[in-house]
Amino acid sequence: MTRWVALLRGVNVGGISITMADVRDALAAGGFENVKTVLASGNVLFDSDRTDSAEVKSDIEAVLRERFGYDAWIVLVDVPTLTRIVDAFPFDAEREGWHPYVLLASDPAVLAEMMSAAADLDLGDEEIRLGDGVLYWHVERGQTLKSPFGKLTGKAKYKSTTTNRNLRTLQKALRACA
Asked: Is 167 a residue whose pLDDT tops 70?
């Protein structure tokens, strides 16, 4: 049995309001086991005996589309992978006044494209580093949506393949798995 973490894109922002209890119930009805949500930002833990991540991802997106009537996109990782991602955060996650973010993608080529595009931006004090299947991002509080990289990540072409999480949210999700 694999313990998975589904990170829903764009939930409870931009007019898509879904309670996590409803998400939990929808995935449980869709055949996923031990479904648990963390916070209201679309972090779902569950078990499945299936190991094909593309198939599991597709099935979850279908359940969400059918139940809630929106274009559902998720990034799916197993718990060992998420643990590795969190442990590898390269910046000072406790730096006062800064947000430690992890940008995840269902298509790793998108991350390389974003990293390449970031090279042309005036990032100031922002820090970005390509990790193993993620982009790590450190940005001053209050600047997330205004920063050059923040504006890049918000482009419509990345909507279906990326999601961003605060490192603390990912840590909380991992603690909920224990």
From this structure: yes
- CATH 3.30.70.1260 assigned to domain 87-166? The reply is yes
Q: What's the start-to-end Cα distance of the chain, in Å?
A: 15
CATH, range 2-81: 3.30.70.1280
**pLDDT for the residue numbered 12:** 63
Same fold, 2-81 and 87-166: yes
Q: What is the side-by-side strand order in the sheet with 33-38?
A: 33-38, 43-48, 2-8, 74-78
Cα Dmax for the chain: 47
Helix (H, G, I), strand (E, B) or coil at 119: coil
pLDDT in tens, 2-42: 999 999 987 766 667 889 999 999 999 999 999 999 998 88
